[in-house]
Every structure is written in structure tokens, then in C-alpha cells.
Amino acid sequence: MSTGPLRAPWTGPLGLYHPGTSPLHRARAGLKLAILALFTLAVALAHGPRSALVALGIALLLQLVSRVPWHRTTRGLLPTLVVAAMIGAYQWWARGWATAVEVSVNLVALVLISTLLTATTRADALLDVLARIARPLRHVGLSPEVFGLTVGLFLRTIPVLVRTTSETRDAARARGLERHPRAVLVPAAVRMVAHARATGDALAARGLGED
Predict the structure, then answer these.
(1) Per the domain annotation, does 43 fall within a domain?
(2) What ranges in the chain are assigned the alpha helix state H?
(3) Domain carrying residue 162
(4) pTM for the full model?
(5) How would you write the pLDDT of the chain (211 residues) with one tens digit per residue?
């Protein structure tokens, strides 16, 4: 018996890629990372609600240029909007409306433009760029390939953590224990440790990390 449409789980930063032919899709991954770094620096240096609104306008314009469906980006933005609203409310109470608008809008703009980066860039292209950037680390004994792999594993762990927590919360709710933090935290922690051990065993089986 059908219970309605199933919602695909959020797959994290590396699972948001949406194929396309827009200028953002065709741009090099390294160039997009550099633009993201400059955009972040500009947001950090600029002050005032007007500059924050300009940053958000730029992010929204890039969203239109990318032609990525809105549901692809807004889905990951929902938790950010909640956090931004909470931070904005506190800043309004502590420092006034101007600071509240600046901080909350800047946060949304940065998350939106970062989401667009992953929505228009393949994960392997991003990790290749990170590995090239990390080449100087060879001088301190760290392999750039291992660095890129570590970043990739970290980002891929985010959706696993989200899914595990959601499934554990649903199981606790089914037993009437949704108000007991231990009923969620302990099983979720055990499952994440098991996932980490399985990932480590898989890496060891492939000889990764060995001299």
C-alpha cells in the first residue's frame, strides 16, 4: 500500500551535483574555488546590512545563472535559515537590527554560494583541486592524495551522520522515547563508530595509509 511520495535523503555537499551546461558548470573547479574564497573574504571585510544584501543578491544571481532547480539548493538551506533566524534574533537583541541583518544575511549568502559550487562541480574535480593545492604538504611528509581523500571522506560522512541521526530519532519515537536524549545519542554514536571502523577497514584492505 502506498504511503505517499518518498523523499530522497539529503546527501550532503558532495551529493548536490546537478548536471548542466550553464557558465558555472563549464567553469574550472579551481576558478570557482578561488571565486568562493574571494567572495568569503569580501563578506568578512565588508560591514553593514547593505553589503550583506549585496552579497545575497550576488548569490541569488549566480543561482539564476546556474539554472540549478531551486529545490536542489533550498533543501540544504532550510537548516541554515533556521540557524540564521536564531542568530539574527540574538544579534537584534544584543547589538541592534543592523548587525542582525548583516550577520544572518551574510550566513545565508555564504551557504548559498557554497551550495552552488557543489551543485555545479563534480566531487572528483573538487577533490583533485584540493589535492593540487596541498602539494606543498609533501615537504612536511603529508601526501596531497591522502589530504584529498581525507577531505572527501569527511564530506561524505556528513550525510551518513544526518541519516543515522534521523533513523535513530525515528526508532526512538516509535518506542515513545523521543524525549530521552540518551535514546537517540547512544545508538547514533554506536552506529557512527561502527561506520568509522568499517571505513577504516576498507581503507586498510586497499593498502591506503601504508608506507
Answers:
(1) yes
(2) 23-26, 29-45, 49-66, 70-95, 97-119, 123-133, 144-174, 181-205
(3) 142-211
(4) 0.65
(5) 444 333 444 444 444 678 888 898 898 988 888 888 899 999 989 888 999 999 999 999 999 998 888 877 766 677 778 888 888 898 899 888 999 999 999 999 988 888 888 888 887 787 778 778 777 767 776 666 666 666 666 666 666 776 777 788 888 888 877 677 777 778 878 888 887 787 777 766 666 555 5
Q: Structural domain tally of the chain?
A: 2
CB atoms within 10 A of CB 165: 17
C-alpha cell at 120: 555545479
Residue 1 lies inside a defined structural domain of this protein: no
User: Which residues have a Cβ under 8 Å from the Cβ of 65 and sit 6 or more positions away?
Assistant: 22, 23, 24
Does residue 175 contact residue 187 with C-beta atoms inside 8 Å? Answer: no
Alpha carbon distance 166, 13 (integer Å): 18
